[in-house]
Design goal:
By secondary structure, the protein is mainly α. It has a domain at 71-215. Helices cover 58% and strands 4% of the residues. The protein is built from eight helices and two strands. It has helices spanning 3-22, 71-106, 110-133, 137-151, 155-162, 165-177, 193-203, 207-215; strands spanning 40-44, 47-51. Strand 1 and strand 2 (47-51) form a beta hairpin. Helix 2 (71-106) packs across helix 4 (137-151), helix 2 crosses helix 7 (193-203) and helix 5 packs antiparallel against helix 6. The N and C termini lie far apart (140 Å).
Length: 235
């Protein structure tokens, strides 16, 4: 090997060593602190079992089909309103049964019946005045439908039976002004089919599941102050 080649090789070697020394040395990767949450375990019969939480899922009652498209907002509003007013319809059924039984047993005179009905009206006013003032028009219309279902009488017939035909006619005219009809009967297989479906879910004990699956919270409870009237027939 000529002297020139030797010098060239040596120079190249020195250059590589110089470059290697000048190049910054790579630091070993930093150890990252653990992230997330520690895994939980419990002992079950001597075995270690992993325990964790999973995200909630939507659970609908069996047979219930949530609406799709543009109807879902209207249906969910119906569910919300139904939850608020249905307890009133249920307690109304108890009140009417109690009033009918009391009149049959104790009100032997027309004057006694009239005084008793008047006392019942005053008691109901004290019990539900604040509640009824907070009911929306949509909720009131649903309540009308449910009263017919639970009591077996439309609102017109209820007023006529416990007041008189004149009063029932007056409120019927008021309802007509708002495009409503107090004589309309409950139609579970027709226009009231959605309400009827909700009633069935309520009766089956699956209402909380349905409401939670829509609003992700338990349904607010409508508080009924008393499920029995205290008015009596005054002789």
């Amino acid at each position: 090997m000529s002297r020139f080649k030797v010098i060239t090789v040596v120079a190249a070697a020195l250059l590589l060593v110089t470059v290697a020394e000048a190049r910054p040395r790579r630091r070993p990767p930093a150890v990252r602190p653990p992230s997330g949450e520690p895994m939980a375990f419990v002992l079950d019969n001597g075995d270690t079992v992993f325990v964790d939480e999973i995200d909630p899922v939507w659970c609908f009652p069996k047979g219930y089909r949530p609406p799709r498209g543009k109807n879902w907002r209207k249906h969910y509003k119906l569910v919300y309103n139904f939850n608020k007013v249905y307890p009133y319809a249920l307690v109304a059924r108890k009140y009417i049964a109690q009033v009918d039984s009391t009149i049959k047993a104790d009100a032997t005179k027309r004057s006694e019946r009239s005084r008793y009905i008047s006392d019942v009206e005053k008691e109901l006013f004290k019990l539900f005045e604040k509640d009824i003032r907070n009911v929306t028009i949509s909720q009131g219309l649903i309540l009308m439908r449910l009263l017919d279902r639970e009591c077996g009488m439309c609102v017109y017939d209820i007023i006529k039976t416990y007041e008189n035909g004149f009063t029932a006619g007056f409120w019927q005219m008021v309802a007509i002004l708002f495009s409503q009809n107090l004589k309309t009967r409950y139609d579970p297989a027709g226009k009231d089919s959605e309400i009827e479906e909700l009633v069935k879910i309520w009766e089956s004990g699956r209402w909380n599941t349905l409401y939670y699956s829509i609003f992700m919270e338990m349904p607010p409870k409508t508080v009924i102050k008393s499920e029995r009237l205290h008015s009596i027939v005054r002789h």
